[in-house]
Amino acid sequence: MLGNHIKISLRTLRRNRTFSVINVLGLALGIAIFLLITEYVAFEWGANRFHKNFDQLYRASTFTADADKGDYYLPPGYAPTLKNRVPGINEVVRVAEGVGSGLVIVPGTNGSTAGNKSFRENKVSFADDNFFRVFSFPVIKGSTSLAKAQTMAISASIAQKYFGNGNPIGQVLNIKNQFGLTPYTVTAVYEGMPQQSDIQADILLSYKTLENAAFRNGNNWADPNGLGSGYTNIYFMLNKGVDLKLFEAQATQVIHKAAPDAAKATLAFQPLRNLHIAPSFSYHFQTYGSLVLVVSFLSVALLIMMIAWLNYINLSTAQALYRAKESGVRKVLGASRMQIVGQYLTETAILTLISIVIAIVSVKLVQPFYNNFLGKELSLTVLNQGRFWVGGITVVFTGCFLAGGYVAFMLSSIDPLKTIRGKAAITIGGISLRRSLVVFQFTTSVILIISTITLYRQLKYMQTQDLGMNVQQRVVISGPSTLSGSQRDNTLAFENQLRQLPYVQKLAASNNVPGEGYNFSADGITRLNANVGDDKKSYAMLIVDDKYFDTYDIKIKAGATFTPQMLEQGWSKTHKIIINESAAAQLGFKNTENIIGQKIKWDAEFEVVGVVKDYHHLSLHEFIRPMIFLPAVAHNYFTIKMDTRNLAGHVSQLKSIYEHSFPGEPFTYTFADESFDKQYNAEQKLGNVFMASAGAAVFIAALGLFGLATFAARQKIKEIGIRKVLGANVLNIVTLISADFLKLVAIAIVIASPVAWYIMNKWLQDFAYHTSIQWWVFALAGSIAVVIAFVTVSIQSVKAAIANPVKSLRNE
Amino acid sequence: MLSLKNISKYYQAGGNKTYVLNNVSLDVDAGEFVSIMGPSGSGKSTLLNIIGMLDEPSEGYHYFMKEAVHQLKEKARSALYKEYIGFVFQAYHLIDELTVYENIETPLIYQNIKSSERKALVADMLDRFQIVGKKDLFPAQLSGGQQQLVGIARALITKPRVILADEPTGNLNSKQGEEIMELFRKLNKEDKVTIIQVTHSEKNAEYGTRIINVLDGKIDSSRNV
Ligand SMILES: Nc1ncnc2c1ncn2[C@@H]1O[C@H](COP(=O)(O)OP(=O)(O)OP(=O)(O)O)[C@@H](O)[C@H]1O
Ligand SMILES: [Mg+2]
After folding, report:
1. What's the structural domain count of chain B?
2. Is the ipTM of this complex over 0.85?
3. Where does the signal peptide begin and end (chain B) (predicted)?
C-alpha cells in the first residue's frame, strides 16, 4: 500500500509541477531560515555548557539596593575568605579578565635583546592554579597548574604566533603591563577557547604572582587578599545538592564580617548556564548574550515556518477541485477514508522530505556568509547541543504533518456522490479559510517589513544624530602600555613631533576615547553644601589633556580648558576639574555662569575651571552621563584630527615616529568614527536578520499568492472565455482576478499596522535616544506588499486574459 | 437479489419537500439486465445511486443479497458493495494520474489482494478486453470508447455480481455505444452478471431483459423485452 502511495504521490507531484515547485520552494525556504536561526539560538543557549561541571559552577555577584544589575567584579580577597568559612564549596577560582594586558616581549632565538619581538595583547588574565581543573579547557602541552608565581599558560594560537612550531614550554616571556615588567615562564599551552565560552583569554598569568608586592608595581588594589577593590571574577564549584539560598545567606554574612565596607551588598551566585542568556526578562545578573535577541530571532523563525505551512495548506486545498474527483472515484472503488488520508499524507511526507533536503543543502551553502555576518562559528552540528535538533525536527515535522493532515482530512471528507455527479463546484475548507490564510501571511510579512524599516531608521538615527562632538577624520593611536618616568617625557616629545607634521591639524592625549568608555565611575562627589543622598550619585570620570575638547570639537560653555601646568601637576595635585552640563545639573547648579571657580567636594576640594556642553561619549543606547574631566599628561590614546588624503603615507610616517619614541611598543591605530559605529553592531545584525526574514516571508507569501492566482485563473477559465467573447478586454480580466487578492492584502495591512506599531514602539523604548515611527513607514510597507502581490497575481491573470477564449470554451 | 420497498428521496427546499423519488418499489433478480429510462431530472441517477449505496433514501426499505441495507452501518454497507457491486459512469471517472493498468488494479489494492495475484487478474482483464497494448497509457491518451472500456474493466476486476451503469454510452458515438452494449450483453449471458443501466437511448435499452420507465420520481411502467 505504501509503495503504491509513493508511486502515485510522485506522479501527482510531477503532474502538478507548478504547485509542487511552489510548495517545495516555500517549505524549503521556511525550513532553511528556521534551521539557520535555530543554529544561532542553540549556539547562544549552549554557551558555557561545554564545561563538564557546568551544573555545579556559579559566578559570584554583589547586589546593592540602588543598582539594577549585579556587579561581578569583586575584590579577590572574597575567594580565600569564603573558601574555608562557608560549607558546600568544592573549588573557588578567580579570573581577573584583561587585568594583565599589555606588552608581551618574546626573546629572540640568539638570546640577545636585539632579536626580541613584542606583541600587544589585550586578552591577558590572571587566574588561580585550579583554573584548568574547574573549567574544561583542554591543555595540549605542559602542566595544568598555575600554582607557582610567575608562571603562565598560553593559547595554541599565541604559541604559534610567538614560537611557530617550536616548543613554548619552559620559555620565559617578559610581560610589561600596569604591574611593571615581569618575567613569566610558560608552563602550559591550551586549546583556543571556543566561541561558546564567555571566559576568553589568550594568556593566563598565575594569580599567585600578585601576592608579591614587588610584582604589583605599587598597584596595591590588586592584592589577591584585598577586600576593597573589585576587579576580579570569582567562580565557585559547589558541592552537589547545596541549598543555594542558604549558601548565599551564609556567604553574605561571612563577607559582611570580613569586610564591613561591603555591608550594603548581598552576595548572590549566578549559575554558569545562565551566564550567557538570562532565563527570564527580569533577570538581575549580568549576562553576555541577549535574551531579547534570542527571543526575537526565535519568534521570527517560527513565524516564517508558519507562513510556509499555511502556504502548504493554502496551495493544497486550492487544488481540491482537481483532487476531489480522484478521491471520490477512489471511494467508489472501495477505498476507505483512512486509505485516502494515507495517500495525501504520503504526498506531504515526500514534499516535506524534499524540502528538508533542499533546506539542508541551502543551509550548507549559505553557512559561510551567514557566519561571516553574525560573526559566529555556526553549523548544523550546533543543533546537537541540548538536543535542539529534536526540538527542531519536532517543530518541522509536526508543522508539516498538521498542515498535511489537515489537507488530507479535508480532501478525504469529500462526498463521492458530488464528484460523480460532477455538478456542484467543490471547495475545500472554504474560500474563507484560504482568504484568512493569505491575510495572515501578509499580515506577518507587513509586520516584518515595518519592523525592518524601523530598525534601520533607528540605526540611521543613531548614526547620524548630532553627537555634540566630531569623530570624523580622527585617527586614534593606542599609546604605550606603561608609563615610566622617562616615557612621560617621551610622550610629550612624541606629541611635539606630531604637531610639526603638516597634516596633523589637531592632537589630543586622553586615557580613554569616545565610543570606548570612561576611565572610571565615582560617587561621593558633592557640592560643599550637599543634600542628603547626593553622595550616592554617580559620575563618569575621564582623564584628558587640555586639547581633548578642541580635538573632538566639544564646545566649552563656560570657563576654559586645562592649562599645561594643571596637566603637569596632574588632577590629584592640582585639584581642578571640568564638568559637563549634566554633571553641573546633577551637582545642583542652576546657572552655569556661576559655576566657574566653585569648589566641589570629592574627599578633597576640587575647583571647577570649565563647563562643556553635553556630548555623546558613548552610543545613543544610553543617556548622556554626568561627566567629570580630570587633567593629566595622558598617554593611553592619541587622537589626531588629520587631513585624510594620502592616508597610507601619513600612517607609515606616524608609525615610524611612534616606534622611535616608544621602542618596543607596537603601533596600532583605529578610526574614531569606525570605533564609535561598532557600538551599533547589534542593531546592524538585528536589522540584517530582519531584512532577510522579511524578504523570505514576503517571498513565501508571494509564492502562495502566485499559486492561488494560478488556481483562480484556471478555475475561472470558462468565465474568462465567455467574458472575452462578450467583449471584455485584458484589463477587465486582470482586474477581475486581481481585485480579490489585493483586497486581502489591504486587510493584512490594516491588521499589521497597529501590531507592528506596538511592537516597535516597545523596542524603541530601550534606546535612550530614539526615532519616532512615522506614518509613511506603514504606507511604504503597505505599498511594498501591494506591489509585490499585484505583480505576482498579474503574471497569472494576464496570462489567463490573453489566452484564446475559443480554446478554453471548446475544452469544456 | 435486490429489493426496494417504498423508497422515497426528497430534498428540503425552503419549507417544502421536493420529492425526487416518490414511493418507489422495485425487485431485481440475479441475472437480470435492467434498463432504466425516463426524461431528464426524473430521478434515474438517484435511483441507481441508492441501489449502489452511494446515496441514502429518505424513507423506505432496501434489501440487497438478503441484507437490510437501510439498517446497516456505513462500514458494513461499504463492505457489502465492495464485494458485490461495480460502477460504470457516463464520464468514465478514470483517475488521470494512473495508467490503464493501474486504474484497473486500484480496486484490488483496496481489497488488500496480494500483488502477484493482482498482476494475474489485471493481465487477464487486459487480455479479455484486448487492451494489453494500451496498458501503460494514461486516460488522456485514450479515445472515449477506450476509456469506457477501461472503466468497465475496472468495474469487473473485483468480479462483482452487479454492474451499475449510469449512461455508460452517453459520451460515446453510436458505434462505440454498440460495442459497449454487446459487451454488457455478453457479461450478462455468459458471466451471469446482473446489470442495471440508465440510458436515454431506446436502442441501447433494448439490450436489456427488462425496461423500466421513470417519470417524476415514480416508476411509470416496466416491461420485459
Ligand atoms: N442535492 C440536491 N438538492 C436538490 N435537488 C437535487 C439534488 N440532487 C439532485 N436533485 C434533483 O433531483 C432530481 C433528479 O435528479 P437525477 O440526477 O436523479 O435525474 P436524472 O433522471 O438522472 O436526470 P438526467 O437524465 O438529466 O441525468 C433533479 O430534478 C435534480 O434537480
Ligand atoms: Mg442522471
Report:
1. 1
2. no
3. none
